[in-house]
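lol so apparently i was supposed to do this last week
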Amino acid sequence: TFMELVKKVCWRGIEAADSIAIRAEHESYSYKQLISSAWEISNLLCNSGLETVDGVRGRRHLGGARIGIVAKPSAEFVAGILATWFSGGVAVPLALSYPETELLHVMNDAEISMVLSTEDHQQLMQSVAAKCAAQFSLIPSVHRISSHESVHDHPQIEEIALDKGDDPALIIYTSGTTGKPKGAVHTHKSITAQVQTLAEAWEYTSTDQFLNWVEFMPKFSVRGVWQRWRESYPPNGSKADDAITVFTGVPTIYSRLIQGYEAMDPDQQAASASAARQLRLTMSGSSALPLPVMQEWEAITGHRLLERYGMTEFVMAISNPLRGVRKAGTVGKPFPGVQVKIAEDPNENDTTGVGELCIRSPSMFKEYWKLPSDIEILCGTKYFVCINLILMSQVTEDSFTDDGFFRTGDAGKIDEDGYYVILGRTSADIMKVGGYKLSALEIESALLEHPVVAECCVLGLPDKTYGEAVCAIIVPVEAAKRKQESSAISLEELCEWAKDKLAPYKLPTRLFLWESLPRNAMGKVNKKELKKVLADE
Ligand code: ATP
Ligand code: MG
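anyway here it is w/ adenosine-5'-triphosphate bound
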């Protein structure tokens, strides 16, 4: 279980307990400090007047109450999550990027009993908590504890009976790309399985420094990342003690890092590229990695980005290898212990091998959290709550096949080398044009290679003759925007250029030039919404 993992890391001799768990904003925190702080916060949680239940070993605990956690990436954020687990609660991280309405939706949906936040968000969160009838509590700063203090000063930590692996530990909300964010309930067991899988696949060791994970930056900044790498590997060929070794990001982060690099003067470029070359691993996920980004990154840093595929529901399941061939345009192969099935549409008699990816994995979430909050408020009776709980399990049940595979909603296929190719969401990225089923991702990836195209989104719009028409929205690169304004590129020019790369029926028949694409906090575009907007135009 996760708690066992924590215990192993933290209590196996003073050496491990004193080693650094997190660096944030030039401060380092040891495992001992982190755990001791978490223990204090957990005592605070258990004595805050929230309802508690009897624990197996005498300690009263929160019995699965949801604790919302709001903090920038920091030691306090991690301490808040650990504290929630120490006190038998379920942690619900709340994104700082959420606008207030989204925050309220998630807090009401999860039925948060208590919000933990750091001082910098106290005002906002106190008022939001009040609107959701939740309590509020401050996470104290993870302080330096005396080096004499032994981990055994908190003997109860050893005794907390949280080794029920199937108990909910964490509710993570999905990115909300296709609708309102859904709460995916992860258990201690599913989290532990994921941690172990990733540690093995990418050979994480205690000497790795993971920017954003082991070390936190308060807010992503292009300059900050490049600077941190240059400090890690100075030009004299040395390596700082706290050098970053691993970095991971969504594709837009890499585009921005590339732009930042291009804007540097030659000396700084040389220092930055040489530093980045010395990282051990750079990875991309969360949405399709455009080929030009992969190629430019490799040209600058020498690193072939490792692309992988995951979802909030099972975190990560398919990945290109750490050692071995990382194939562009693919997400690699399933991790050990993960099974993938491609469910072809029984109503279609094509044999393209394309179908919905269905996944079985030890890191699979338990269920979607879908509390009947509105009906409960309306009627306030247990009867209605009951009916809604049944409906809730139905929602989760519908997401699984009879033989226990999770339906991802993503279309994919296997290539000749056994690598998986993601073709996009079955709901928004697979277009039916004439008799053909086309992948928007494939067309986007081709169009992105055009020098004038900075960003691109392809979707199918209703068409009387063909069912759907391929429509491309393009954000031109800055230079083109300045030069010719709206005439940066025409549909004819684009198609003329693309005709060697795409079959004729894949070429766009409608083109929109936009200033930017509407992206959510994860950098993703809600195509369903866009289709509605464009269909009315
Ligand atoms: P919601 O479920 O609320 O609509 P979401 O699906 O975007 O939002 P996440 O769980 O963050 O929320 O994202 C998972 C999705 O991201 C996958 O279903 C898939 O469509 C996409 N994705 C993840 N990795 C890749 C990848 N390497 N290539 C292409 N798409 C990817
Ligand atoms: Mg999803």
